[in-house]
Specification:
116 residues; 31% helix; 3 helices; Alpha-D-Glucose-1,6-Bisphosphate, Chain A, domain 4; globular; 37% strand; 6 strands; alpha+beta
Length: 116
């Protein structure tokens, strides 16, 4: 059982395979890591699961990042432990924006947050 906490997306001007290679080199892995051709998931601590999914986009790759609450016990305590996630979406969005900018820089291509 999991509950979506936040989602953010961006477009990177390179094919999904190149984006995923750079993403894997950029994301610090703390916890259980699952790697697919166009996906990466990290589950750590008692509640956190982060998933990244890459798909083709007319400008290169659409990269979507989702954060889930996957607590098996004390699920109700996750928002309390994280101060009701005040600022969490913005912090996640800012970190994601920096991450895709770094991937774009490494690949020499444009990268931007997706709006709407």
């Amino acid at each position: 059982m999991r509950k979506l906490i936040t989602e953010v997306a961006g477009v990177i001007g390179a094919p999904p395979e190149k984006v995923m290679r750079e993403l894997r080199a950029t994301i610090p892995a703390h916890g259980t890591v699952e790697v697919g051709d166009r996906s990466l998931s990290i589950q750590g601590g008692w509640w956190y699961r982060g998933e990244w999914h890459a798909s083709p986009h007319p400008e290169g790759t659409l990269l979507v990042h989702r954060v889930y609450n996957v607590a098996q016990w004390m699920r109700w305590g996750v928002p309390l432990a994280n101060k009701f996630f005040i600022g969490f979406r913005e912090t996640t969005r800012d970190g994601f924006a920096q991450g895709i900018a770094e991937i774009g820089r490494r690949l020499g291509v444009p990268a931007r947050l997706k709006t709407g």
